[in-house]
Amino acid sequence: MQHRDAQGMMRSYDFGALPVPEAFQRSLAALYVVKCAPGGGWDSVETSEAHWYLVRPFTEFLAGLDAVPPDVDGLTTTHWNAWRLSLPPRPNGYSKYASVAGLLQLDPRLAQPVREAMAKRFAWETGRVQAYRPEEFKEIRIAARRTFRSALMRIRENTDRLAAWRAGATEPGSRDWLVGEALDVLARTGDVPLYEWRRVVRRRYRPALGGGSAEHTWKRLFLSRKETAALAVLIASELGLNSTTISEMPVPKTLPGTAEAGMPVYRLRLEKRRRAGHRGRFESRNLTDSGADSSGRIISEALEATSHARATLALLGAGTDRLLVWHQTTEHEGQAYLKAVRVGQFGFGVDEHSGRDWARSVGLSGSPLKRIRKTVNVLHRREPGQNTQDTHDSVYVLPEPQVQQAAVPVIAEGALDAVAAAHRTVFAARLTDRSGAGELETATADCADYKHGPFSPPGQTCAASFLLCTACPNARVTPTHRPRLAHLHQALGNLRGVVEPAVWDADWADAHARLADLRDRLGQPVWNAALTSVSDTDRDVIDQLLHGDYDL
Question: Is the separation of the CB atoms in 91 and 126 below 8 Å?
Fold first, then answer.
């Protein structure tokens, strides 16, 4: 079976080589055809190939059983549970489990008990990618900038040499002239003049070029695979995109008039193929190159560094609109790097393998592309990068240790604010049976110390509203105050229906809540008795208090 995707890539899968009976092989092939068809869910050969390497271990497991099921309809829960127990509780084990289950469930002959077994949760230990620490992030960007900048300067220098040769500005037969002629051949064919039978630089050009290594030949105009990986790291560090999106990014369009004004604005067309059929699969972003520190500068430099490669491919009849194009020494159709796209000596895009190879070449461990993306989206952009907000929050933000650490003081501050708010709405005055000597009567309670209250500077007479007496530990509430406070609580509740909600919340809500707390402490029967005991004096005092007319 062959799968050709919309990008023009193709993979072949030999189901006859799977170690299961022929009927089972045919069933798996038929399911693959469904998934690889347009709209089937596997829109790229990378996806179908990834599933191939997950399905094949399943068939190898079945082949090792005493009784191998002849076809999909011969699978039992015993087969499936044994397969499940054989998988390690890690992401790779879960991937195999989910891939095989998702494929087999498309076959209507699959028994219902097996389907129910497949629906059970697969417990596995997460291996979450963590964001880089600020110093790590800086180190990686510096290393990537150093790699790519060196390549860009090399290509610029040789671009100038080629332009001078084509303009006739070099002396024929001189070293610069020979280098210019070799560069012209390189730009048209993808390689400097060679003895084809053994791929050696022709003797005439070898001294002028300085040797026959990549640095002296094709690297003069083209990026290498590792240099392209460094460029991808820089793009990811600006935009927070994943490696596939960067790999497949078309050449950005320049908005009309912006380049002429000296400040080009690039429109990036982005696609996340995993979101096929969902809103958000396609996205565009505008980036402005307004200087060395702007996010658009890396796009300007990427276009410059890869322009010769696209021009050469166009001359060879294999034009491409990919932004990331690189070169290698010999023609290569993907034997070593199965997921890579090749046209002769040219390759496109970047993957985790090339990212890892670049990282090792500069003394770093592992490909930084995934962690760079998470670092940018979680800690710098702080917004989804081609994900839904829920996925961004639950998968990327919440599990990130740096986010958790940064949230500690915020949560603590929020807790303190919540405590303060609770204190504002909790009755704080003291309940007593009778008034004490020297206490001053107010509109709502007796005051035991009106010069040392919490709402005025020490030694100064309290000037706070009488509504705050219920929040003051110096206030004393006796049974004689209860009718007045019960009437105040009722009056504040009535105000809620006649004033704007925002006004009531700001002016009356806390006082109402404190009185509700007092009611709960006293109990509803005592509160009801207080309401029946409200006097005309109580009503006059509360009316004056609410209108701001009350005075001692």
Answer: yes
| Measured distance CA(445)–CA(450) in Å, rounded | 12
Query: Cβ(410)–Cβ(403) under 8 Å?
Result: no
CA 436 to CA 424: how far, in whole Å? Answer: 26
Predicted confidence at residue 239, as pLDDT, reads 86
Amino acid at 450: Y
The answer to whether the beta carbons of residues 300 and 264 sit under 8 Å apart is yes
The identity of residue 213, as a single letter, is: S
pLDDT tens column, 221-280: 999 999 999 999 999 998 888 888 888 889 999 998 888 888 899 998 887 665 544 555
Answer yes or no: pTM beyond 0.70.
no
| CA dist., res. 299 & res. 37, Å (int) | 35
Whether residue 129 contacts residue 374, with contact meaning beta carbons closer than 8 Å, is answered with: yes
Q: Report the sign of the C-alpha dihedral through residues 234, 141, 309, 167, in that order.
A: positive
**Edge-first strand listing for the sheet containing 325-327:** 325-327, 346-348, 341-343
pLDDT at 46: 80
Within 8 A by CB and 6+ apart from 71, the residues are 21, 23, 24, 27, 109
CA dihedral 399, 402, 406, 408 (to 10 degrees): 50
Alpha carbon 42 to chain centroid, angstroms = 23
Tokens at 14, concatenated:
């030999």
- Bridge-partner residues for 11, per DSSP? 3
- CA distance from start to end of the chain: 96
How far apart (Å, rounded) are the C-alpha atoms in residues 355 and 196? 32
Average pLDDT of the chain to the nearest whole number? 84
Q: How would you classify residue 10: left for phi > 0, otherwise alpha for psi between -120 and 50, otherwise beta?
A: beta
Identity of the amino acid at 198? R
Q: Is the pLDDT of residue 152 over 90?
A: yes
Dist. CA 455–CA 464, nearest whole Å: 6
Residue carrying structure tokens 């994943």: 242
* Res 292: pLDDT: 84
Instruction: Please give the sequence-ordered ranges of beta strands (E in DSSP) within 177-246, or none if there are none.
Output: 194-195, 200-201
pLDDT-derived band at 400 (thresholds 50, 70, 90) equals low
Look up tokens 């807790």; give the residue. Answer: 415
Burial (0-12, 13-18, 19+ Cβ within 10 Å), 337: middle
| Residue 437 burial (C-beta neighbours within 10 Å; 0-12, 13-18, 19+) | exposed
Q: Please check the confidence at residue 550 and state whether its pLDDT lies above 70.
A: no
CA 349/CA 472 separation, integer angstroms? 69
SS3 state at 283:
strand
pLDDT tens by residue, 485-509:
999 999 999 988 888 888 888 888 8
Q: Are 538 and 494 in contact (CB under 8 A)?
A: no
Distance from chain centroid for Cα 101: 28
Q: Which of 75, 83, 80 has the alpha carbon at shortest distance from 110?
A: 75
The two tokens of residue 483 are 């009718």
